[in-house]
Amino acid sequence: MSVFKPRSLGVLRGYTRERLVGDLMGGVTVGLIALPLSLALGVASIPAGTPMPFPPPAVGLFTAIIAGFIVSALGGSRVQIAGPTAAFMPIVLLIVERYGYDGLLLATIMAGGMLIAMGFARMGTVIKFIPYPVTSGFTTGIAISIMVSQAPDFLGIGAAEPAPRAFLEKIPWLLRHIPDMNPTAAAIAAASALLIYFWPRFGWKRLPGIVVATVAASAAVALLGWTHSHGVATVGTRFGPEAIPSRLPPFTMPLVSIERIRGLLAPAVTIALLGSIESLLSAVVSDGLINDRHDANTELIAQGIANIVCPFFCGLPATGAIARTSANVRSGGTTPVAGMVHAATLLVIVLAFSRYGQFVPMAAIAAVLVMVALRMGEWHELARMRQMPGSDALVLVATMTLTVVFDLVIAVEVGMVLAAILFIRRISETTEVARVTASDELETQEQVAHGKDIPEGVVVYRIFGPLLFGAAEKMEDALERFGELPRVLILRMQLVPAMDLTALNALESICERIQAAGGVLVLSGPHRQPLQMMAKAGFIDRIGRANIRAHFDDALARAREVLAG
User: Fold this and answer.
1) Residue 240 φ then ψ, to 5°
2) d(CA 525, CA 550)
3) pLDDT at residue 495 greater than cutoff 60
4) Selection from 345, 278, 328 nearest residue 306 by Cα
5) pLDDT tens digits for range 546-565
6) Which residue in 500, 512, 521, 510 sits closest to 428, CA to CA?
7) CATH top-level class for 432-564?
8) b/e for 48-67, b at 16 or more Cβ within 10 A?
9) Rounded mean pLDDT, 75-93
10) What is the secondary structure of 96-154 as a DSSP string?
C-alpha cells in the first residue's frame, strides 16, 4: 500500500460549482489573513542587516505562497493551509544568529528531508505520542519569547544600542530604555492590538481584523506623514523602499559541507519536530471541523517537500497553521483547491501591490505578532498546574523556562528527556509484582488461584502491567524480599502485555539463580510478544519448554511434577 496519497488527486471527483465557490471564498479570505501574518513573520524572523539575496519582509510572503501551494497540492488533509508560523521564530533567529541566513536555508532543507523520511517510515501517528506537557511548555515559552522580542517595536524604542536577543539580558535592556519609547508608535501598536481583538465582535468576519488593523495603521502613517514628523519606524525605513520587491525570489543554493551539516543537525531536528507537531495538530483540528480524517504520513511528506523547495527560493521553515486552516474552513473552503487559491491570492497581491508594503509600521507588525502569541500560549495550563500530577507540571515548567531563558533546541531536548524519565517512573509505578496465595480470585476458572492447592516449596508471583525497563527491578526486589529461594517459582504473566530487553535480562538473572540453587522457574500464561522475545533470545531453551505453561492449572501441575521428581 502506498504511503504517499495526496488528497488533491481525488478533488475533481464529485466537484461541484458550490464547492468551487466555497473554495474561492475560503482561499481569498485566508490569503488576506496570511498577508500581514507572513509579512510580520518574515520581518521578525530575520534581523535587519542580515546579508541575504532577498529582503526579509518578502521572505515570509513567498514562503506562504510556495509552501501553501505545495502542501495543498500534495498534502494528506483536504483543508490544511501551510506557511510560516510564529512557532519557528525563536529557532530561526537562533540559527541566523549562529550560522547566518545561509545556515538557515541548509537547516530547513535538512528538516524537510527528515520530514519526508518520517512520512515514508510511517511515523505520522508516532508524533502524536509526544507528551502534552512538552508541547504545551514550549508553545507557551515560544509565546512569551515572541512577546518579549516584539516589545521594542511595540513601544517604538529606537535606541542606538541594539536590543540583545537573550531573555535575561533583554528584560533589563527594556527597563532601561522605556524612557526612549515613541508615544505615537506605542499608540499605533495598542490601537492595532485592540482592533484585532475586538474586530470579530463587530460581526464582519469576511474581512479579517488583522488585515483591517494593518491597512488602517499603514494608511495613517502614510497619509499623516508620521514617519517624518513623529519618527514612526516602518518596513520601508528599516529595510529600504523596495522591502517587498514585485518580482519572484532568485534561486539560491546554500553552502553545503559535512561540518555545517553536523553543526546544524540539532536545529534541523528541532525544525522537523516543530513542523510535524504543528502540522499534524492543525490537521487534527481541521478533521474535527469538516468531519474528515487526514493521512498523517502523506501530510509529513508534503510538509517535507515544501521545506526542501522553499529555501531554494529564500524561504523560511513552513508548517500547517491552525488559525489559517480554521479560517479557511469557516470561510467555505472544503478541498485542497482553497489552499491553492490562497497561494495565488498572495502572489497576485505581492506582485501588484508590493510598493505599498513600505508604509506598514513596525509597531503594527509587533501588534500582530503579540496577538498571535497571546492566542498560541497555553495560559490555561499554567492556571491549572496545581491540579496536574507533579511530574507533568515539572516537565511543562522546565520546557517553558528553558525555551524562554535559553533556546528552543535545548528546551525540546531536555523536555523530551524529562518526559521519558518520568514515563519510565510512571510505568514502574503502575506495574505490580505481588505474591499470590490460595485466597486470590483472578481471571477465568483455569487462571484463578482461589481455593487451589499451592504445594509447599512452590512460590507464586503475579506480574500485572507491562514489564519494561522501569519495572524490571521490581521483579528482582520481590525475590530478594522472599529470602530463601523456593524449589519451584511460578511467575504468572497472563497480565503482562509486553516486555522489553531489560526485563528479559532480569528474568534470565532470576532463572540462573533458581537453577543454581537446584530449583525450577515456571512461566504461566505469557502473551505473544513476551514469548516471541524469549524465543528469539534463546531463553525458552534455557528455561526448558516444559516450564512454559498456558495457564495457572498447568503451571501447578508442572510444579507437582518437579516436586515429585
Assistant:
1) 100, 160
2) 4
3) yes
4) 278
5) 999 988 889 999 999 998 87
6) 500
7) alpha beta
8) eeeebebbbbbbbbbbbbbb
9) 92
10) HHHHHHHHHHHHHHHHHHHHHHHHHTT-TTGGGGS-HHHHHHHHHHHHHHHHHHHHHHH
Find all residues with CB under 8 Å of 501, minimum gap 6, and list them. Answer: 469, 533, 537
Model pTM? 0.78
All three cell numbers of 379, joined, read: 495560559
Distance from chain centroid for Cα 21 = 33
Residue 196, all three cell numbers: 484585532
> For residue 467, what are the β-bridge partners?
499
Average of per-residue pLDDT values in the chain: 86
Question: Could you tell me whether strands 520-524 and 432-436 are parallel, antiparallel, or unpaired per DSSP bridges?
Answer: unpaired
Structure confidence by residue, pLDDT tens digits, 214-244: 999 999 999 999 988 888 999 988 888 778 8
Strand partners, 549: 524
CB 362 within 8 A of CB 154: no
Decide if pLDDT at 446 tops 50: no
Q: Highest-confidence range of 411-420, 430-439, 506-515, by mean pLDDT?
A: 506-515
pLDDT(207) > 70: yes
pLDDT at 160: 62
Yes or no: say if 31 and 208 are a contact pair by the CB < 8 Å rule: no
- Interacting residues of 120 by C-beta distance below 8 A, sequence separation 6+: 3, 4, 297, 301
Q: How many residues does the chain have?
A: 565
Residue whose C-alpha is closest to residue 549's, from 562, 537, 564: 562
Taking 80 as the threshold, does the pLDDT of residue 533 lie above it? yes
C-alpha cell at 343: 497561494
* Domain parsing of the chain, residue ranges: 21-150+170-233+257-421, 432-564
Which one-letter amino acid corresponds to residue 342?
H
